[in-house]
Specification:
Layout: H1 18-35, H2 39-45, H3 52-59, E1 67-68, E2 71-72, H4 76-89, H5 91-111, H6 114-125, E3 131-134, E4 150-154, E5 157-168, E6 175-182, E7 185-192, E8 198-202, E9 214-224, H7 237-271, E10 273-274, E11 277-278, H8 283-312, H9 317-342, H10 353-365, H11 370-382
Parallel strand pairs: 3-6
Antiparallel strand pairs: 1-2, 4-5, 5-9, 6-7, 8-9, 10-11
Helix pairs in contact: 1-4, 4-5, 4-7, 5-6, 5-7, 7-8, 7-9, 7-10, 8-9, 9-10, 9-11
Cofactor: FAD
Domain Acyl-CoA dehydrogenase/oxidase C-terminal: 234-381
GO molecular function: fatty-acyl-CoA binding; flavin adenine dinucleotide binding; glutaryl-CoA dehydrogenase activity
Protein backbone atom coordinates (compact mmCIF):
# COMPACT_ATOMS: atom_id res chain seq x y z
CA UNK A 1 0.00 0.00 0.00
CA UNK A 2 1.28 3.45 -0.91
CA UNK A 3 -0.28 6.90 -0.95
CA UNK A 4 -1.24 6.34 -4.59
CA UNK A 5 -2.74 2.92 -3.84
CA UNK A 6 -6.54 2.93 -3.40
CA UNK A 7 -6.14 0.10 -0.88
CA UNK A 8 -4.37 2.55 1.47
CA UNK A 9 -7.62 4.03 2.75
CA UNK A 10 -6.03 5.57 5.87
CA UNK A 11 -2.71 6.85 4.46
CA UNK A 12 -0.68 4.16 6.23
CA UNK A 13 2.32 5.02 4.08
CA UNK A 14 2.40 8.58 5.41
CA UNK A 15 3.13 7.21 8.90
CA UNK A 16 6.43 5.69 7.79
CA UNK A 17 9.85 7.32 7.64
CA UNK A 18 11.72 7.62 4.36
CA UNK A 19 14.05 4.81 5.44
CA UNK A 20 11.14 2.53 6.36
CA UNK A 21 9.48 3.17 3.00
CA UNK A 22 12.74 2.49 1.19
CA UNK A 23 13.26 -0.81 2.99
CA UNK A 24 9.71 -1.87 2.25
CA UNK A 25 10.02 -0.97 -1.43
CA UNK A 26 13.34 -2.81 -1.71
CA UNK A 27 11.90 -6.01 -0.25
CA UNK A 28 8.75 -5.69 -2.38
CA UNK A 29 10.89 -5.39 -5.49
CA UNK A 30 12.89 -8.47 -4.49
CA UNK A 31 9.68 -10.46 -4.03
CA UNK A 32 8.36 -9.32 -7.40
CA UNK A 33 11.56 -10.27 -9.21
CA UNK A 34 12.70 -13.41 -7.38
CA UNK A 35 9.62 -14.96 -5.78
CA UNK A 36 6.33 -14.27 -7.57
CA UNK A 37 7.39 -15.84 -10.90
CA UNK A 38 8.27 -19.13 -9.17
CA UNK A 39 6.30 -19.46 -5.94
CA UNK A 40 3.34 -21.32 -7.46
CA UNK A 41 5.76 -23.99 -8.74
CA UNK A 42 7.51 -24.18 -5.35
CA UNK A 43 4.14 -24.60 -3.66
CA UNK A 44 3.02 -27.29 -6.08
CA UNK A 45 6.34 -29.15 -5.84
CA UNK A 46 6.51 -28.79 -2.05
CA UNK A 47 9.97 -27.26 -1.99
CA UNK A 48 11.92 -24.21 -0.91
CA UNK A 49 15.02 -23.40 -2.96
CA UNK A 50 18.03 -23.34 -0.65
CA UNK A 51 19.84 -21.15 -3.16
CA UNK A 52 17.45 -18.35 -2.24
CA UNK A 53 19.09 -18.07 1.20
CA UNK A 54 22.24 -16.22 -0.01
CA UNK A 55 20.03 -13.88 -2.03
CA UNK A 56 18.03 -13.07 1.10
CA UNK A 57 21.37 -12.52 2.84
CA UNK A 58 22.40 -10.00 0.17
CA UNK A 59 19.02 -8.32 0.57
CA UNK A 60 19.89 -7.90 4.27
CA UNK A 61 16.72 -9.36 5.83
CA UNK A 62 18.28 -12.29 7.73
CA UNK A 63 18.52 -11.14 11.34
CA UNK A 64 18.05 -7.58 10.08
CA UNK A 65 16.75 -6.34 13.46
CA UNK A 66 19.84 -7.60 15.34
CA UNK A 67 22.95 -5.52 16.05
CA UNK A 68 26.44 -6.48 14.91
CA UNK A 69 27.86 -9.74 13.51
CA UNK A 70 26.91 -8.81 9.95
CA UNK A 71 23.31 -7.90 10.85
CA UNK A 72 21.74 -4.65 9.69
CA UNK A 73 20.45 -3.46 13.08
CA UNK A 74 17.22 -1.98 11.69
CA UNK A 75 14.20 -0.91 13.68
CA UNK A 76 11.41 -3.31 14.62
CA UNK A 77 9.06 -1.47 12.26
CA UNK A 78 11.49 -1.86 9.35
CA UNK A 79 11.76 -5.57 10.09
CA UNK A 80 7.98 -5.83 10.29
CA UNK A 81 7.55 -4.10 6.93
CA UNK A 82 10.03 -6.55 5.41
CA UNK A 83 7.95 -9.41 6.84
CA UNK A 84 4.82 -7.83 5.36
CA UNK A 85 6.27 -7.81 1.86
CA UNK A 86 7.85 -11.25 2.21
CA UNK A 87 4.54 -12.81 3.24
CA UNK A 88 2.75 -10.97 0.47
CA UNK A 89 4.86 -13.28 -1.67
CA UNK A 90 4.27 -16.39 0.43
CA UNK A 91 4.06 -17.34 4.09
CA UNK A 92 6.78 -19.92 3.51
CA UNK A 93 9.21 -17.20 2.48
CA UNK A 94 8.47 -15.10 5.56
CA UNK A 95 8.68 -18.23 7.72
CA UNK A 96 12.18 -18.96 6.44
CA UNK A 97 13.35 -15.42 7.23
CA UNK A 98 11.52 -15.38 10.57
CA UNK A 99 12.91 -18.71 11.78
CA UNK A 100 16.39 -17.84 10.58
CA UNK A 101 16.49 -14.37 12.16
CA UNK A 102 13.99 -14.24 15.02
CA UNK A 103 14.41 -17.78 16.34
CA UNK A 104 17.72 -19.38 15.38
CA UNK A 105 19.86 -16.22 15.12
CA UNK A 106 18.10 -14.39 17.96
CA UNK A 107 18.62 -17.32 20.32
CA UNK A 108 22.36 -17.19 19.64
CA UNK A 109 22.51 -13.39 19.65
CA UNK A 110 20.60 -13.07 22.93
CA UNK A 111 21.78 -16.14 24.86
CA UNK A 112 24.97 -17.36 23.20
CA UNK A 113 28.64 -16.92 24.06
CA UNK A 114 30.84 -14.57 22.08
CA UNK A 115 32.48 -17.58 20.43
CA UNK A 116 29.07 -18.95 19.38
CA UNK A 117 28.04 -15.59 17.98
CA UNK A 118 31.23 -15.21 15.96
CA UNK A 119 31.02 -18.77 14.69
CA UNK A 120 27.43 -18.65 13.45
CA UNK A 121 25.85 -15.20 13.17
CA UNK A 122 27.89 -13.68 10.29
CA UNK A 123 27.37 -16.80 8.16
CA UNK A 124 23.68 -16.96 9.00
CA UNK A 125 23.19 -13.27 8.23
CA UNK A 126 24.75 -13.88 4.81
CA UNK A 127 22.56 -16.92 4.17
CA UNK A 128 25.66 -19.13 4.01
CA UNK A 129 24.44 -21.17 7.00
CA UNK A 130 20.81 -22.02 7.78
CA UNK A 131 19.43 -22.41 11.28
CA UNK A 132 16.34 -23.93 12.87
CA UNK A 133 14.71 -23.80 16.30
CA UNK A 134 13.88 -27.08 18.04
CA UNK A 135 11.25 -26.49 20.72
CA UNK A 136 7.99 -28.18 19.65
CA UNK A 137 7.77 -31.92 20.23
CA UNK A 138 5.38 -34.57 18.84
CA UNK A 139 3.39 -34.66 22.09
CA UNK A 140 4.06 -31.15 23.40
CA UNK A 141 3.27 -28.17 21.20
CA UNK A 142 1.35 -25.65 23.27
CA UNK A 143 2.84 -27.07 26.49
CA UNK A 144 6.63 -26.88 26.00
CA UNK A 145 7.26 -26.89 29.76
CA UNK A 146 6.63 -30.65 29.72
CA UNK A 147 9.04 -31.42 26.89
CA UNK A 148 10.61 -34.88 26.97
CA UNK A 149 13.93 -34.08 25.30
CA UNK A 150 16.62 -34.50 27.95
CA UNK A 151 20.20 -33.37 28.36
CA UNK A 152 22.36 -35.03 30.99
CA UNK A 153 25.93 -34.31 31.95
CA UNK A 154 28.67 -36.82 31.18
CA UNK A 155 31.90 -35.34 32.49
CA UNK A 156 32.34 -32.03 30.71
CA UNK A 157 29.99 -33.09 27.90
CA UNK A 158 26.22 -33.20 27.48
CA UNK A 159 24.24 -36.17 26.14
CA UNK A 160 20.94 -35.27 24.43
CA UNK A 161 18.05 -37.62 23.68
CA UNK A 162 14.64 -36.75 22.28
CA UNK A 163 12.80 -35.49 19.22
CA UNK A 164 11.37 -32.25 17.88
CA UNK A 165 8.50 -31.92 15.42
CA UNK A 166 7.16 -29.36 12.93
CA UNK A 167 10.51 -27.58 12.70
CA UNK A 168 10.75 -25.05 9.86
CA UNK A 169 14.08 -25.41 8.02
CA UNK A 170 14.70 -28.54 10.13
CA UNK A 171 15.94 -30.87 7.41
CA UNK A 172 18.09 -28.27 5.62
CA UNK A 173 19.55 -26.47 8.64
CA UNK A 174 23.29 -26.39 9.29
CA UNK A 175 22.71 -25.79 13.00
CA UNK A 176 19.75 -26.33 15.31
CA UNK A 177 18.97 -24.53 18.54
CA UNK A 178 17.59 -27.41 20.60
CA UNK A 179 15.84 -26.94 23.93
CA UNK A 180 16.05 -29.74 26.49
CA UNK A 181 15.26 -30.49 30.12
CA UNK A 182 18.23 -30.76 32.49
CA UNK A 183 18.55 -31.18 36.24
CA UNK A 184 18.87 -27.40 36.45
CA UNK A 185 15.82 -26.73 34.26
CA UNK A 186 15.34 -26.04 30.54
CA UNK A 187 18.52 -25.14 28.65
CA UNK A 188 19.41 -24.42 25.03
CA UNK A 189 22.08 -26.16 22.95
CA UNK A 190 23.55 -25.59 19.50
CA UNK A 191 23.62 -28.84 17.51
CA UNK A 192 25.55 -28.76 14.20
CA UNK A 193 24.10 -30.93 11.42
CA UNK A 194 27.08 -33.29 11.27
CA UNK A 195 26.90 -34.21 14.98
CA UNK A 196 26.76 -38.03 15.40
CA UNK A 197 23.32 -39.20 16.52
CA UNK A 198 21.57 -36.10 15.14
CA UNK A 199 19.26 -36.88 12.20
CA UNK A 200 16.44 -35.06 10.43
CA UNK A 201 13.46 -36.03 8.33
CA UNK A 202 11.45 -33.85 5.95
CA UNK A 203 7.69 -33.91 6.57
CA UNK A 204 5.88 -34.56 3.28
CA UNK A 205 2.28 -34.48 2.02
CA UNK A 206 1.53 -31.09 3.55
CA UNK A 207 -1.51 -29.10 2.42
CA UNK A 208 -0.14 -25.85 3.83
CA UNK A 209 3.19 -24.00 3.80
CA UNK A 210 4.28 -26.16 0.90
CA UNK A 211 6.88 -23.61 -0.25
CA UNK A 212 8.66 -24.19 3.04
CA UNK A 213 10.69 -27.08 4.44
CA UNK A 214 9.26 -28.62 7.62
CA UNK A 215 11.18 -31.31 9.43
CA UNK A 216 11.52 -33.61 12.41
CA UNK A 217 14.69 -33.61 14.52
CA UNK A 218 15.87 -36.79 16.23
CA UNK A 219 18.58 -36.88 18.89
CA UNK A 220 19.94 -40.30 19.82
CA UNK A 221 22.73 -40.07 22.41
CA UNK A 222 23.98 -36.85 20.83
CA UNK A 223 27.20 -35.89 22.58
CA UNK A 224 27.95 -32.17 22.76
CA UNK A 225 30.80 -30.31 24.41
CA UNK A 226 30.08 -27.86 27.20
CA UNK A 227 30.71 -25.06 24.70
CA UNK A 228 27.55 -26.07 22.80
CA UNK A 229 25.28 -24.87 25.60
CA UNK A 230 23.82 -21.37 25.31
CA UNK A 231 25.31 -19.95 28.52
CA UNK A 232 22.73 -17.22 29.14
CA UNK A 233 19.62 -19.34 28.46
CA UNK A 234 18.07 -20.48 31.72
CA UNK A 235 14.48 -21.63 32.07
CA UNK A 236 11.47 -21.68 29.76
CA UNK A 237 11.51 -17.89 29.50
CA UNK A 238 14.48 -18.08 27.11
CA UNK A 239 12.77 -19.97 24.27
CA UNK A 240 9.52 -18.08 24.89
CA UNK A 241 11.32 -14.76 24.42
CA UNK A 242 12.51 -16.04 21.04
CA UNK A 243 8.92 -16.93 20.14
CA UNK A 244 7.84 -13.39 20.97
CA UNK A 245 10.36 -12.13 18.40
CA UNK A 246 8.94 -14.45 15.74
CA UNK A 247 5.32 -13.71 16.62
CA UNK A 248 5.96 -10.02 16.13
CA UNK A 249 6.98 -10.67 12.53
CA UNK A 250 3.78 -12.63 11.98
CA UNK A 251 1.68 -9.62 12.99
CA UNK A 252 3.07 -7.73 9.98
CA UNK A 253 3.46 -10.78 7.74
CA UNK A 254 -0.16 -11.86 7.93
CA UNK A 255 -1.21 -8.34 6.92
CA UNK A 256 1.01 -8.78 3.88
CA UNK A 257 -0.77 -11.98 2.89
CA UNK A 258 -4.11 -10.19 3.24
CA UNK A 259 -2.84 -7.26 1.15
CA UNK A 260 -1.81 -9.55 -1.68
CA UNK A 261 -5.20 -11.26 -1.60
CA UNK A 262 -7.21 -8.03 -1.73
CA UNK A 263 -5.00 -6.57 -4.45
CA UNK A 264 -5.47 -9.74 -6.50
CA UNK A 265 -9.24 -9.69 -5.98
CA UNK A 266 -9.55 -6.02 -6.97
CA UNK A 267 -7.54 -6.56 -10.15
CA UNK A 268 -9.57 -9.63 -11.07
CA UNK A 269 -12.91 -7.95 -10.34
CA UNK A 270 -12.01 -5.07 -12.62
CA UNK A 271 -11.06 -7.36 -15.49
CA UNK A 272 -13.73 -10.07 -15.16
CA UNK A 273 -16.82 -9.16 -17.18
CA UNK A 274 -20.21 -10.73 -16.50
CA UNK A 275 -23.66 -9.52 -17.61
CA UNK A 276 -21.99 -6.87 -19.74
CA UNK A 277 -19.82 -5.15 -17.12
CA UNK A 278 -16.91 -5.85 -14.73
CA UNK A 279 -17.98 -7.68 -11.60
CA UNK A 280 -16.28 -4.85 -9.67
CA UNK A 281 -19.28 -2.71 -10.64
CA UNK A 282 -21.74 -4.93 -8.75
CA UNK A 283 -22.80 -3.99 -5.24
CA UNK A 284 -22.14 -7.40 -3.65
CA UNK A 285 -18.57 -7.42 -4.95
CA UNK A 286 -17.98 -3.86 -3.74
CA UNK A 287 -19.32 -4.74 -0.30
CA UNK A 288 -16.86 -7.63 -0.05
CA UNK A 289 -13.97 -5.47 -1.19
CA UNK A 290 -14.90 -2.58 1.10
CA UNK A 291 -15.22 -4.80 4.18
CA UNK A 292 -11.91 -6.50 3.45
CA UNK A 293 -10.09 -3.23 2.78
CA UNK A 294 -11.28 -1.80 6.11
CA UNK A 295 -10.10 -4.92 7.94
CA UNK A 296 -6.79 -4.86 6.07
CA UNK A 297 -6.11 -1.23 6.97
CA UNK A 298 -7.04 -1.88 10.59
CA UNK A 299 -4.61 -4.80 10.73
CA UNK A 300 -1.83 -2.71 9.19
CA UNK A 301 -2.33 0.08 11.72
CA UNK A 302 -2.33 -2.43 14.60
CA UNK A 303 0.93 -3.89 13.35
CA UNK A 304 2.51 -0.46 13.03
CA UNK A 305 1.41 0.52 16.53
CA UNK A 306 2.95 -2.63 17.99
CA UNK A 307 6.11 -1.96 16.00
CA UNK A 308 6.41 1.51 17.50
CA UNK A 309 5.91 0.04 20.98
CA UNK A 310 8.63 -2.53 20.30
CA UNK A 311 11.04 0.14 19.11
CA UNK A 312 10.28 2.12 22.26
CA UNK A 313 11.05 -0.95 24.38
CA UNK A 314 7.61 -0.95 26.01
CA UNK A 315 5.81 -3.79 24.21
CA UNK A 316 4.34 -6.55 26.36
CA UNK A 317 3.80 -10.22 25.44
CA UNK A 318 0.02 -9.99 25.63
CA UNK A 319 0.09 -7.13 23.11
CA UNK A 320 1.90 -9.34 20.62
CA UNK A 321 -0.78 -11.97 21.27
CA UNK A 322 -3.44 -9.38 20.41
CA UNK A 323 -1.64 -8.64 17.15
CA UNK A 324 -1.13 -12.24 16.10
CA UNK A 325 -4.63 -13.35 17.06
CA UNK A 326 -6.36 -10.48 15.27
CA UNK A 327 -4.22 -10.18 12.17
CA UNK A 328 -3.89 -13.87 11.34
CA UNK A 329 -7.56 -14.71 11.65
CA UNK A 330 -8.44 -11.49 9.78
CA UNK A 331 -6.03 -12.41 6.98
CA UNK A 332 -7.46 -15.92 6.78
CA UNK A 333 -11.01 -14.58 6.48
CA UNK A 334 -9.87 -12.13 3.79
CA UNK A 335 -8.10 -14.85 1.81
CA UNK A 336 -11.21 -17.03 1.82
CA UNK A 337 -13.48 -14.14 0.79
CA UNK A 338 -11.14 -13.09 -2.01
CA UNK A 339 -11.30 -16.63 -3.39
CA UNK A 340 -15.07 -16.25 -3.79
CA UNK A 341 -14.56 -13.16 -5.97
CA UNK A 342 -12.22 -15.17 -8.20
CA UNK A 343 -14.83 -17.90 -8.67
CA UNK A 344 -13.56 -21.09 -10.25
CA UNK A 345 -10.27 -19.44 -11.19
CA UNK A 346 -9.58 -19.03 -7.49
CA UNK A 347 -8.91 -22.72 -6.94
CA UNK A 348 -5.86 -22.68 -9.24
CA UNK A 349 -2.30 -21.62 -8.43
CA UNK A 350 -2.58 -18.96 -11.10
CA UNK A 351 -4.00 -16.74 -8.36
CA UNK A 352 -2.69 -16.35 -4.81
CA UNK A 353 -5.68 -16.16 -2.38
CA UNK A 354 -6.29 -19.89 -1.88
CA UNK A 355 -2.54 -20.51 -1.57
CA UNK A 356 -2.45 -17.79 1.09
CA UNK A 357 -5.52 -19.28 2.81
CA UNK A 358 -3.87 -22.70 2.97
CA UNK A 359 -0.68 -21.18 4.35
CA UNK A 360 -2.52 -19.09 6.92
CA UNK A 361 -4.07 -22.24 8.38
CA UNK A 362 -0.53 -23.07 9.55
CA UNK A 363 0.23 -19.51 10.64
CA UNK A 364 -2.95 -19.62 12.74
CA UNK A 365 -1.48 -22.62 14.57
CA UNK A 366 2.27 -22.10 14.87
CA UNK A 367 4.06 -19.68 17.22
CA UNK A 368 1.10 -20.16 19.57
CA UNK A 369 -2.33 -21.35 18.48
CA UNK A 370 -5.25 -18.93 18.35
CA UNK A 371 -6.59 -20.66 21.48
CA UNK A 372 -3.36 -20.03 23.41
CA UNK A 373 -3.23 -16.37 22.42
CA UNK A 374 -6.88 -16.03 23.43
CA UNK A 375 -6.01 -17.39 26.88
CA UNK A 376 -3.01 -15.05 27.16
CA UNK A 377 -5.36 -12.13 26.59
CA UNK A 378 -7.92 -13.66 28.96
CA UNK A 379 -5.31 -13.93 31.70
CA UNK A 380 -4.39 -10.27 31.20
CA UNK A 381 -8.04 -9.28 31.49
CA UNK A 382 -8.97 -11.42 34.50
CA UNK A 383 -5.76 -12.26 36.32
CA UNK A 384 -6.57 -15.98 36.08
CA UNK A 385 -4.42 -18.40 34.09
CA UNK A 386 -6.66 -20.89 32.24
CA UNK A 387 -3.82 -22.92 30.75
CA UNK A 388 -3.95 -25.65 33.40
Amino acid sequence: MTLTDPLDLLDFDSLLSDEERQIRETVARFVTEHVRPHVADWFEEGTFPRELAPELGKLGVLGMHLEGYGCAGTSAVAYGLACLELEAGDSGLRSFVSVQGSLAMFSIWRYGSEEQKLQWLPRMAAGEAIGCFGLTEPDFGSDPANMRTRAVRDGDDWILNGSKMWITNGSIADVATVWARTEEGIRGFLVPRDTPGFTTRTIKKKLSLRASITGELSLDDVRLPASAQLPEARGLGAPLSCLSEARFGIVFGSAGAALDCVRTAVDYANSRVQFGRPIAAFQLTQQKLADMAVDLNTSALLALHLGRLKDAGTIKPHQISVGKLNNVRTALAIARECRTILGGSGITLEYSPLRHANNLESVLTYEGTSEIHTLVIGQTLTGHAAFK
